[in-house]
Each structure stands twice: as structure tokens, then as C-alpha cells.
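Two entries, shown back to back:
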Amino acid sequence: MNRLGFGFLILISRLPFWILYRISDLFYVVLILIYPYRKKVIETNLRNSYPELPEVEIKKLRNKFYRHFADLVLEGVKNLSVSKDQLAKRFILKNPDLIRTSIMKNESLMLISGHYGNWEWMITSLANWFTCRTIGIGMPLSNSFWDKALNKRRSRFGLEVVHSGNYREVIKQDEANLILVLSDQSPSNTDNAYWMEFLNQQTAVLFGAEFMMNDQKFIPVFFKTTKIKRGYYSIELIPFEGNLLQTKYGDTTEWHTRLLEKTINSQPEFWLWSHKRWKHKVPDNIEELRKNQLKRFNARFRKI
């Protein structure tokens, strides 16, 4: 069944864009009128993030999200077979020289953002833009067949997909590595998460990106996604200003999360609102937790 389903998606992915967007139009109608996917989760997330908005505006935002989500699903299917040339025309990197200069120096960088715009095209495009080693860090899917099948298609232009627990095994210290991380998932272990206000709510933010930056001396770079129009996106690279080795605990997590928040607030409908990102409650011992996290960070990375 898995192979049959994947084969069917491959066939659909070979359809031209204009047909896929007609399918997306039908899918949008289904989401609005028949099967409102995770409607309660989406509306709750929007209400808590924008408490000043009246209910009518919340519902408008929900429908705008459904419109983008329908396109996103079909664009994700198209990603299984989209050509390099098609992707290059539709997913544009505005300032590649920011990274190419570091690559020439054999410096390794971490590109970090969240599930905003079209991250699947970002994953596939990375090796299309740069000649250095490109690595996508993430968690595997629960279904091993789909995990292997999807990652094979994502990596067909040269990207290496690596489990977050194995990143040290693939990093080569004598050459440039370009690491891609999406850091807006809900962490499984809140004891290791960084707690901060995000979209008007106390939020447990994954600390893994900051840990990896300091562990491997990756240069932090935020990638800001803008949806130009239907099926067209652009990426702007925003470097971290400052010396990573002089940062304090939480500095880079605050930095990239604030940039993501600003991006979301500019056009909220393009973020993935259908996930339960605030399912964790703030720990009762939050102050003690922060002190212990700071102590561990300094002992490992700052020798304090």
C-alpha cells in the first residue's frame, strides 16, 4: 500500500503546475466547506497569538491559511519530481554571495528558520544553489518507508538528510558545511527547551539549533521566506551580527525566533498554524530550570 500510494503521488507530481493549482482550488473548497482540517487547533492558535483581533478577522486568517495550505500540499507533491530549472524560477535566493564568501573560507554555516512559506522547496533548493556540502537536520518520520522515500526525493540534487542525533558523524571539519534547520517544532523535552514569549504566549523553543551552533562553531544565518505570488517565493539571508563565541545562553535562540515572529506577523497566513505548538505548560520550577540550563551551557561552551 505504501509503494502504491507513493507511486500515485509521483504520477500526480508530473502534472503541470496549472493543473495542480486547479486541484488545489478544489482542495481549498473541501477545507472550507466539507473537511475543515484541524479547525479548532488553527483558530485557537490564531486567537492566542492575536488576541486583539475580532472573531471575524480570525476566521478570515483561518481561511487565508487554508488557501495557502492547499497550495502547499500540492506544491509538496510537485516537489517529488520538479526539475532544477523549474525550481530555480519559482524559488529564488536574493543574496547568495553572503554564503558563498564564507564557503570560500571553508566556514560552516547554519541556515535556520521555521515552517513558513514553502520549506519543502527550500530543502530541495539548497543543494541547487551551492556546491559545498549541504545537510538538512531533522527528525525521522514514524513510517520508515515514507521517511526513506521522501528523503530520497528531497536529496536528489545533492542534499544529505541527517537525523538530529547523528549530526556530528557527518560534519567534516576541513571543509564548508551548510546546515539547514527548522526550529519551530514543539520540543518533546521541555527541560531542554528555551522558554520565551513568542506570538504573545510563553513558548518552549527548541534549543537544539543553538546547541549545534556552539558545539560545531556554525555561523548562524536566518533565512526569511517571502511568498511573492502563487507558486513563487524568495529567500533573503540575514546574518547574525556578532561573535557566536561571545554570545550568552539563549542569545541566538532569541535572535532567530524574533526574526521568525516578525516574518509571521508580516503575513500570518503563510505559517503552519495547524500544529499544536503550545501543548506544553510553563514548568512550575521555570526559574530553577533556567538557572540549571545556564549553568550547563556555560560549563560546556564558555568554561565558566
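entry 2 starts here
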Amino acid sequence: MDIRKVCIISLGHLSCDINGGALPTLLPYLAAMHNFDYQTAGGLMFAYSVASSIVQPVFGLLSDKVRTPVFVPLGVLLAGLGIGLCGLLDSYAAIFAALVLSGIGGALFHPEGARYANRVSAGRQGTGLSIFSVGGNSGFVAGPLLVTAATKLFGLHGTLVFALLSLIMAALLFRLLVCDMPPAPQRPGQTAAAQGSNNWRAFSILTLVIMSRSILFLGLNSYIPLYWTDVFQVGKADAGLVLTFFCAVGVTSNVLGGMLADKIGYSRVIRLAYAVCLPALLLFPRMDSAWLAALLLAPLAVGLFSPFSAMVVLGQKYLARNVGLASGVTLGLALSVGGIAAPLLGFVADHHGGLPTAMQCLAPVALVGGLAACLLRDSAPEKPAPSGQDDAA
């Protein structure tokens, strides 16, 4: 495994997902400025999530064919530019469009980023994809902190910090990935089919599990700041710190989950994660103390973050011929379900008892995901990559 290249692509993942991590913390500021209700605020999360997800399989197929790292810096640039414009715009339609642009940037980055991480990890894809995932999850931790600091210093116009950061990071990634480390050319006669077969049945079950996790993650990630400001009556800055705590525990869990998966298997880690998550989801909406609710965010973060790397690696194993497509679905299309669910949860909160009622809707989703996870099986143990696998991955 080329650890330097893996760390560089993980840095790119951080600089892309810092924008998605910033959006939930930004929502209360946008809602207060423009008088958005829960459903309308959830619609903004919908714009970003669906745009970043639905088109990812298309970019994944393109990544399998073109195999160019230029998608990495371009995706980072668009993702940051969209979030950066949000604080400057006055109309809901314009903010919605900016978030669609940011989402497209994420969709462009993730398939090529995951494919590149797979390729430079050689025979240690589990470790490489874990490092890659940590970069993205770290972005979700840093995003709320950056929003809180930028808006405190500059108001909503402080979102321009994300555009500036994306420009700097895109230039750095272009220099490191595109100029210094172009992908190796494909050898004549080499095909993805030579690298393995596609198990569509197993991949379909995994996709259902990822959809469940997506609804749970984006449901919590979208409304945790609003939950603390509206249900527990705390300030916006403190609400952002609560989300940061949730994501920080999650990043640590992602690393430990990847290490545990190497020892006991990917599918077993996924099942254990759901076993941790479901009881916490049942208790969370019933908490009337902000401190007790915050403590429950720890097992929720463990349950939602720890299996993430295992899910991505299993997807690439199940679709061994189309790693880019697998990455586009596992990191993108399946996650769009969570984006669709966000405004639906907002509708429940607006019309049927507030955010605690909406959070109660998540427990059945976790149960479905946990049952589907029981059907997952690890593929055969990985062997060292044969000659030419790096190019085809």
C-alpha cells in the first residue's frame, strides 16, 4: 500500500465532505434569516444529498472508463463553491441551486476518489478504504466547527470561507494527484472482468443496508442542531458543538470499526453496529435532558460510523468488475434515500408532534437495516493483487 497516496486522497475526501458536514449546522442560521420551517430546511438537505448521490453511479461508470484523477480537485472545487455561495443568496431557489452545485461536486469526487484509494491500496483495500473514509468523516467533524467560527466572525457571509478553502485545496490536489501522480495507463487486453465477478444479489442486500444507514445518519445529522435549539432551547453555537461531538465520536468509531473488521469480518461489524444503534434510537426521543440526549449520541455515532468502511469495501468486493460503479452506488445513490427522508422527517415534525416524534420514526428503519445485515456475508479472503490489478481497480 502506498500510504502517501492514500493519505493524499483521504485529505481530498476531508476537503470535499467538510461542505456536507457544514450544511446541518448552517441550516439554523439560514432558517432564522429566511424564516424557513422544518420541511423547507429539510428540503435544502434534500437538494444537497440527492444531487450528490443520484448522479454518482454515472460518474462511477465514467471513472471506470476514463480513470482520471482530475475529477478529485474539480469535485472539491464545486462542492466548496456551492456552500460558499449560500450565505450570500437571498432566495430559497438560489440557495437550493447552490446546494445542488455543491452536491454535484461531491458526486464527481467520491467514485474517482474511492477507486483511486482502492488502486493505491494494492492488496490492503480494507485499510486503505478505512483511511479514505476517515478523511470524509473528519470533514463532517470540521464542517460544523468552521461554520460556527465563520458565522460568528462574519455573519452568514462567512460561508465564503468554504469557497476559499475549496479553491486552495483543489489547487493542491491538482498539483499532487494530476501533475505528479497520474494514473498508470491500462495495458492492452486488460479488462475488469479478469479481476473477478459481480455478485448483484449480495450487492442489492448491501444497498438496502446502506439505505437504512443513510436515513438514520442524515436524519440525525440534519436535525441534531435544530433538535437542541428547538427542543432543548440551547444556542446555535452550542447546538453546533453537539453535532461536532456526534461526528468526532463517529470518526473514532470509523477507525476502530475498520480495525475490528480486519479481525472479525466486514459483515459481522455491520451487524454489531446495528445492534448498538437500535436501542439508542429507541431511547433518544424520550430524553427530556439535553445532557442525557447528548450521551446517547455516542452509541448512535458508534452504530452509524463504525460500519461505513466495511460497507464500502464489501460493495467493491461484490462488484469486483466495476469498482467505480460500486463506489458510486455505496457512497452515492444509496445515500440519496437519506436525503429524500430528511424533508419527510421535517413534515412529521411540523405536523405531528415536533422533532421527538420524527426521531421515533427512525427506529423501524434501523430494524429493517439490521435484519438485512444478517443476510450479508464476506466474500473470499483477499489475496495479493495480481499483475495489472491496480490499473483495473
